[in-house]
Amino acid sequence: MLLTQVSVDQTSIQAENRPGEPQEMSFIDHLEALRWHIIRAAIAVLVFTLGAFLAKDFLFHDLILGPSRPDFWTYRMFCEFGKLLNAPDLCVDPIKFDIQNRQMSGQLTMHISSSFIVGLAMGFPYTFWELWRFVKPGLYPHEQANSRGAVFFVSILFILGLLFGYYIAAPLSINFLASYQLDPSIENQIDLQSYLSTLTTMSLSCAFVFELPMIVFFLAKAGLITPEVMRLYRKHAIVVILVVAAIITPPDVSSQLIVTIPILLLYEVSINIARIVRRNSLQKLNADLVANNGQS
């Protein structure tokens, strides 16, 4: 009896130590793995932040203060479009406002904070990739197969949203708000922090809002949402989208419409994504049923 027990114990030990077999990780091991993923992501963000900090002239003169000048790319494109339509009003006049710093350490603080924001934005794709590397081993093989390309599409949508916010939503909002006057005698002297807050809020908000199709994709894969439900609550979704657009944009109608239109388009695209996900799931289910019936 004792020999049998010893034999069983040795067999189980060998099975646990067999090379190539996946080993169970303890909670501490998971925390350790997560810690290193976070460290690598933080290093990537720090590298981009340092690069942005060193490129001070490009960061402020070209990137941050670009939408405050009439020679910005967006304004030039609108002017060219206005010439084609014989609508000279689309050309942007020099924006009448001054950006000021009112604190002793304000410019240094703004240099550091803006560099960090650029570092976060540029490091987001790599940060998401590190997060995905941590989550992926815990998924079943079919879940990993269904999520193939997640990092790529999340990164692409984030970049598209960031570009839309920076080149479309933010400059038009800045131009409207800076040009709005109650009386010609009142001059617009904008605080640097207020200007940067408007620019970053518009850009980053659009970047995250553009992730709507991927969110719907994963919810549809989990069976938590269907295209019928999204169509049924389309009117409610429009109200929610209008509220979100009002929150992330300055209080002017033009900015809200500029942000609302692409979100509505993304919602319609998400309905089609949910429909495709359900169709593929039904096809796979039918194929499995046919295969099981053939084996029986």
UniProtKB/TrEMBL annotation:
It comes from the Bacteria. The keyword Membrane applies. One of its GO terms (biological process) is protein transport by the Tat complex. It holds the Pfam family TatC. InterPro entries: TatC. Keywords: Cell membrane, Membrane, Protein transport, Translocation, Transmembrane, Transmembrane helix, Transport. The keyword Transport applies. Part of the twin-arginine translocation (Tat) system that transports large folded proteins containing a characteristic twin-arginine motif in their signal peptide across membranes. Forms a complex with TatA. NCBIfam families: tatC (TIGR00945). This is Sec-independent protein translocase protein TatC.
